[in-house]
Amino acid sequence: MRHYPAGVTVVTLHPQEKPVGFTATSFASVSADPPLVSFNIAHTSSSIDALHIAESVVIHFLGEHQQHIAQRFARSADERFTDRSLWTRLDTGEPVLYGTPLWLRVVISQLIPVGDHTLVIGLVARVHDETGTELSAAPLLYHNGRYYKPTPLGD
């Protein structure tokens, strides 16, 4: 499936004592009413246990300028939150990344084992949208093992 381009998201959560996060390219909209979204996580992920005890997550839609964030959250789990200048916490406890044009706070409603992954379905509880501001950016894309910035058609 690496030959199908996808938008890049970072999922963050705060299940207990320390923050957890990971890069995900499997985000999908599931339903408009109620507003449900989904993503997948591998059963071998260092974040899977935390996800099973978390009540909610924040899904960050990365802009084309945030490849360094995608790479940080694809690295070793103990390196992801070491730079405190990159994130803060919501009043509900989840980490939120600075400079992300769009993020969703999502309450987890279903965890469904599917093959070697778990499908996570959640209800959107909050939308933070700065796509019409100076933070606005084209989305960061991932295709065939590389990150890309979109090029408008006709250029």
Automatic annotation (TrEMBL):
UniProt family annotation: Belongs to the non-flavoprotein flavin reductase family.
GO molecular function term, any single one: FMN binding
InterPro entries named in the record: Flavin_Rdtase-like_dom, NADH-dep_flavin_reductase, Split_barrel_FMN-bd
Oxidoreductase keyword on record: yes
SUPFAM superfamilies reported in the protein's UniProt record: FMN-binding split barrel
Oxidoreductase keyword on record: yes
Domain Flavin reductase like positions: 1-149
Entry's Gene Ontology BP terms: pyrimidine nucleobase catabolic process
Organism for this UniProt entry: Antrihabitans stalactiti
Keywords, sorted A to Z: Oxidoreductase
SMART domains with a match to the protein in the record: Flavin_Reduct (SM00903)
PANTHER family on file: FLAVIN REDUCTASE, FMN REDUCTASE (NADH) RUTF
Protein name, UniProt field: Flavin reductase family protein
